[in-house]
Design brief:
Elements: H1 18-27, E1 36-38, E2 41-43, H2 45-62, H3 74-93, H4 99-124, H5 131-159, E3 191-192, E4 195-196, H6 205-225, H7 234-251, H8 254-271, H9 275-300, H10 304-317, H11 331-347, H12 372-403, H13 406-409, H14 414-420, H15 423-436, H16 444-472
Antiparallel strand pairs: 1-2, 3-4
Helix pairs in contact: 1-2, 1-5, 3-4, 3-12, 4-16, 5-6, 5-7, 6-7, 6-8, 7-9, 8-15, 11-12, 12-15, 12-16
């Protein structure tokens, strides 16, 4: 049995079913709730779906004698290199660590292997070309309910209506002092007079913003690329987009605003979109948001658009003489966490201080780095940082490859052609946010989203390989 069967197409490939893919991804939106706890780790619906998926793969591999096939191995080797760098970070840990930090290292390492295996399995398995197409269609329809609930929460919190807040049951939110901070055991919500930042089913506003940022990509990119849309009915597409933009505004996320700007610039450059079309659509949606802002102002006496202006002005000015930061501004905390990561990196620049140990290091002043790159730099050293760059580079290279295969794929699989337009934009935003705003590298949400690229990449390689074989026969 050849685990790395790189070329042989005669053997039956391991397959991951569409229903598992859909349920696993949707389950990730319920991360606030646990089924039970294991040594402080909240076992969630996502974990349950991962276990089911892995058992399915194991059954096919060991019992049915199916194989993995890696037609291109650069991304696979990048994940392996990243894992090795995390293992080697134990060397840095040995210079200062204790029993608690060693246990944390093994917990974090095992969790990374556990979630990143999903990406490896998708790269080596066969997935139906329309599997993720169906998933995204379900996500977009579900987003209507999620975003309507986000809008309802604004009024529910003002008038003390039912379901204004959702209580978090996941034990992981109650560790390392999280439960001692106001709101984190329920939902993190900042109040500006009568305006409450929207969270919907998520733990904090930025998570809702990230969810809707992905929906913006799903709705706009296929149309801009002139491929089959996920939602066939134009009126429903527009309705979903309207609620997505409203919820984005009500989440009051500067990260969301920044990444939307990055996305639009990337779309113009990569798809060579006429700027006049962008301006036309921008005016239409600007009018919509101004109307929504007026409605919100009537109920809350606060202009959300003005809050955005104050927030940006406060960050640029950053002094009492020129302007004040909006209360609860998170940017200073992010910058402080990155500075803390750099300080820890200097303690062990080659191997890092040990995976997962930012919280435990005696010189640390933060629970974690709010940046994937600087988090890896501090915990896995320069070796880990190089491995992460290598991973980003090869994923970006693969995303460009599938993007430029769109034209060749449309005749064979319109659904796959649509999927091929997405990874490059998702990856750009992942890299930007991973450097500047968030550290999600060792989470189920990162690797379930990575599945969009991995499955599309593998399906594209399989289709290209089969077409080559047909042409030569």
């Amino acid at each position: 049995m050849n685990l790395f069967n790189l070329k042989n197409q005669k053997k039956t490939l391991i397959q991951i079913s569409t229903i598992i893919i859909i349920l696993l991804h949707l389950a990730d939106y319920t991360y606030m709730f646990q089924l039970f706890s294991i040594a402080g780790y909240g076992f969630t619906f996502t974990d349950l779906m991962f276990v089911i998926a892995y058992l399915s793969v194991a059954y096919q591999f060991f019992v049915q004698k199916r194989v993995f096939t890696f037609l291109e191995t650069k991304v696979l080797y990048s994940i392996i290199l990243l894992t090795l760098s995390f293992i080697l970070s134990a060397i840095g840990l040995m210079t200062w660590g204790n029993d608690a930090s060693l246990i944390q290292y093994f917990k974090t390492l095992s969790h990374f292997i556990y979630v990143s295996l999903w990406g490896v399995f998708l790269l080596g398995s066969e997935i139906k070309p329309d599997a993720y197409f169906k998933l995204i269609r379900v996500i977009l329809v579900a987003s209507l309910l999620i975003n309507i609930y986000a809008i309802y929460q604004l009024f529910a919190r003002i008038y003390d209506l039912p379901l204004a807040y959702i209580q978090i049951s996941n034990q992981q939110f109650l560790t390392r002092g999280f439960d001692k901070e106001l709101g984190e055991a329920n939902q993190i919500v900042l109040k500006f007079e009568n305006f409450y930042r929207a969270t919907s089913i998520f733990s904090e506003p930025s998570a809702l913003a990230s969810f809707n940022l992905m929906n913006v990509i799903f709705l706009i990119v296929p149309k801009a690329s002139k491929v089959k849309p996920f939602i066939q009915k134009n009126w429903l597409n527009n309705l979903i987009l309207i609620f997505v933009l409203i919820a984005l505004m009500l989440s009051f996320s500067l990260t969301g605003l920044s990444l939307i700007s990055v996305f639009l610039i990337s779309l113009i450059v990569i798809n060579k979109i006429n700027i006049t079309k962008i301006i036309k659509n921008f005016i239409i949606f600007a009018v919509l948001l101004i109307v929504v802002d007026q409605i919100v102002s009537n109920y809350t006496n606060i202009s959300v658009l003005n809050l955005f202006y104050q927030r940006v002005e406060g960050l640029i000015a950053n002094s009492p003489q020129k302007g004040e930061m909006v209360v609860g501004e998170s940017a200073p905390d992010r910058i402080a966490s990155i500075k803390n990561a750099i300080t820890l990196y200097k303690e062990s620049p080659i191997f890092g201080i040990g995976l997962g140990n930012t919280y435990f290091h005696p010189k640390s002043t933060a629970r974690f780095a709010q940046s994937a790159f600087f988090g890896v730099l501090s915990e896995a050293g320069i070796i880990g940082a190089i491995a992460l760059i290598f991973f980003y580079f090869n994923s970006f290279r693969g995303s460009l490859f599938v993007h430029y295969e769109t034209f060749n794929t449309q005749a064979f699989s319109p659904e796959l052609a649509t999927m091929q337009t997405l990874p490059i934009f998702i990856l750009i935003l992942t890299i930007v946010s991973g450097i500047l705003t968030s550290d999600t590298l060792i989470t189920t949400s990162y690797w379930s989203t990575f599945g969009i690229f991995a499955s599309t990449y593998k399906s594209t390689l399989l289709l290209k390989n089969r077409n080559s074989l047909s042409a030569s026969s």
